[in-house]
Automatic annotation (TrEMBL):
<dbReference type="InterPro" id="IPR009100">
    <property type="entry name" value="AcylCoA_DH/oxidase_NM_dom_sf"/>
</dbReference>
<dbReference type="GO" id="GO:0033539">
    <property type="term" value="P:fatty acid beta-oxidation using acyl-CoA dehydrogenase"/>
</dbReference>
<dbReference type="InterPro" id="IPR037069">
    <property type="entry name" value="AcylCoA_DH/ox_N_sf"/>
</dbReference>
<dbReference type="GO" id="GO:0003995">
    <property type="term" value="F:acyl-CoA dehydrogenase activity"/>
</dbReference>
<dbReference type="InterPro" id="IPR050741">
    <property type="entry name" value="Acyl-CoA_dehydrogenase"/>
</dbReference>
<feature type="domain" description="Acyl-CoA dehydrogenase/oxidase N-terminal">
    <location>
        <begin position="4"/>
        <end position="118"/>
    </location>
</feature>
<comment type="similarity">
    <text>Belongs to the acyl-CoA dehydrogenase family.</text>
</comment>
<protein>
    <submittedName>
        <fullName>Acyl-CoA dehydrogenase</fullName>
    </submittedName>
</protein>
<feature type="domain" description="Acyl-CoA oxidase/dehydrogenase middle">
    <location>
        <begin position="122"/>
        <end position="217"/>
    </location>
</feature>
<dbReference type="Pfam" id="PF02771">
    <property type="entry name" value="Acyl-CoA_dh_N"/>
</dbReference>
<dbReference type="InterPro" id="IPR013786">
    <property type="entry name" value="AcylCoA_DH/ox_N"/>
</dbReference>
<dbReference type="Pfam" id="PF00441">
    <property type="entry name" value="Acyl-CoA_dh_1"/>
</dbReference>
<keyword id="KW-0274">FAD</keyword>
<dbReference type="InterPro" id="IPR006089">
    <property type="entry name" value="Acyl-CoA_DH_CS"/>
</dbReference>
<dbReference type="InterPro" id="IPR006091">
    <property type="entry name" value="Acyl-CoA_Oxase/DH_mid-dom"/>
</dbReference>
<dbReference type="InterPro" id="IPR046373">
    <property type="entry name" value="Acyl-CoA_Oxase/DH_mid-dom_sf"/>
</dbReference>
<keyword id="KW-0560">Oxidoreductase</keyword>
Length: 391
């Protein structure tokens, strides 16, 4: 993929924002288990960074997805995964379906203020018994007059404690699992919605994640996104962008682990020589950096084909699979060379070790990615459905 001067300018804007607005505070936010999301989102919105590939009519920049991918890559350098994750939920999980399939009214009421950073969104797909198996979700939305009445719950919902709206996937009929689901926008201040206490997660500590309960929550049918019963299909389309974003966001975080480990191994001496002088270690760093470049190339290839209008389900799934597995390999290898220092909670590689573990789970587990890839390769016996998950 060939980047232009405009890509470089956007990268510089994001890089400056990360260095000035996020990195100086990231340790504090990680300890607090939250960050000033509204303040950060408003600043991002003022810079146009929450609507890079959204329609100009609603305040977006109207650029192709390669610009959004470049921003995702730069956000990965902030020093912790939680803040980029919550930003990615806003840009690539809860708003794409509204932008692509929503009515003008929905776009005006929810998408435009989300792009400006004035409203915070979350995505309601996963449930305690339906994570990777999206077809198995139980939350329902039955019609009552001109309304839908929603009952059920959603689990592991990032941004939900502060969210103004949710892009919810719910069952709206008793049809087959792939035909009975509908996407809809649910304002989070309605009666019957309960957001449980913030979940105590292994990693991504600065992002707020909770379970959300719905008890006879009533919304007008005009809050439906697109046609009824098309929610599963819409969610599958959205996963292409979500998975490319996740892969891109991993790249610079892994590069930081390698660079920090090299710097530490230059300073740390054992048996009279710097650790980095051990051929095993500096060869290992070279191997890991080579793998990171391979991930970058795979992700860029998927994006290039995507902006050409191609179906990149297979490549996006490969990129996400590679990002999750390589993330574990890089952080585990680097942590080893830090020795006892690497086992400390506040160590940057220790934090990355915890954060990156989510990449192989959220947005579709590794096993789901393998199933999708196998299906598209034609290696599965019989007919199989490539179900997948969201945040």
């Amino acid at each position: 993929m060939i980047f232009t001067q405009e890509h470089s300018e956007l990268r510089r804007t994001v890089r400056n924002f990360v260095q000035n607005e996020i990195q100086p505070h990231i340790d504090e936010w990680e300890k607090a288990g939250a960050y000033p999301m509204r303040e950060i989102f408003k600043k991002l919105g003022d810079l146009g960074l929450l609507g890079i590939h959204k329609p100009e009519e609603y305040g977006g920049l109207g650029l192709d997805y390669s610009y959004n991918l470049a921003a995702a890559e730069e956000l990965g350098a902030c020093g912790a995964g939680g803040v980029p994750l919550s930003i990615g939920v806003q840009t690539d999980m809860c708003t794409p379906a509204i932008a692509r399939f929503g009515s003008h009214e929905l776009k005006s009421e929810f998408l435009a203020p989300a792009i400006r950073g004035e409203m915070i969104g979350c995505i309601g797909v996963s449930e305690t018994s339906a994570g990777s198996d999206v077809a198995g979700l139980k939350t329902s939305a039955r019609k009552d007059g001109d309304d839908y009445v929603i009952n059920g719950s959603k689990m592991w919902i990032t941004n939900s404690p502060q969210a103004d709206f949710m892009c919810l996937l719910a069952n709206t009929s008793d049809d087959k699992p792939h035909k009975n689901k509908t996407l809809m926008v649910v304002p989070m201040n309605l009666p019957g919605i309960e957001v449980a206490p913030h979940l105590d997660k292994l990693g991504m500590r600065s992002s707020e994640t909770a379970q959300v309960f719905f008890d006879d929550v009533r919304i007008p049918q005009r809050y439906r996104i697109g046609a009824e019963g098309m929610g599963f299909m819409m969610q599958m389309v959205q996963f292409q962008e979500e998975r490319m974003w996740g892969a891109a966001n991993t790249i610079k975080a892994l590069e930081a682990c390698v660079n920090q480990t090299i710097a530490y191994c230059r300073e740390r001496k054992t048996f009279g020589q710097p650790l980095i002088d051990n051929q095993y270690i500096h060869f290992r760093m070279a191997e890991l950096q080579t793998e990171i470049e391979a991930l970058r190339a795979l992700t860029y290839q998927a994006c290039e084909l995507y902006i050409q209008g191609k179906d990149v389900t297979q490549l996006a799934s490969m990129a996400k699979l590679k990002a999750g597995r390589l993330g574990r390999e890089v952080t585990d290898s680097c942590l080893q060379y830090w020795g006892g220092m690497g086992y400390m909670w506040d160590n940057p590689v220790s934090r990355a070790f915890r954060d990156v573990r989510l990449v192989s789970i959220g947005g579709g587990a590794d096993e789901i990615m393998l199933g999708i890839i196998c299906k598209l390769m034609g290696t599965l016996p019989g007919k199989r459905s490539a179900n997948s998950t969201g945040e």
